[in-house]
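Regression test case RT-17, inverse folding.

Input:
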């Protein structure tokens, strides 16, 4: 496993462990209170974080990853050109 996949695996395990540790301690289903809203949002966030890392670990092919990196580089270059144009006025 390469360094990137190892990082995503560790973060997925950490977020799932956080979810399994915290889920029994959260009281959901006692009506709409601030505590229940916070608990539901916390669970949703933990699930999204775990899902994102699992997606990167299992579903993203090398080609898709390379395309995303290319798009990020082009976006950064465009951003840099915009800043340079503003300062060179």
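Golden output:
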């Amino acid at each position: 496993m390469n360094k990137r996949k190892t990082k995503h695996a560790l973060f997925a395990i950490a977020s799932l462990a956080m979810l399994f540790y915290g889920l029994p301690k959260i009281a959901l289903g006692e009506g709409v209170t601030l505590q229940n809203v916070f608990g539901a949002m916390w669970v949703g966030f933990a699930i999204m974080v775990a899902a994102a890392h699992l997606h990167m670990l299992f579903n993203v092919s090398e080609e898709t990853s390379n395309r995303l990196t290319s798009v990020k580089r082009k976006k950064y270059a465009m951003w840099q050109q915009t800043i340079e144009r503003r300062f060179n006025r």
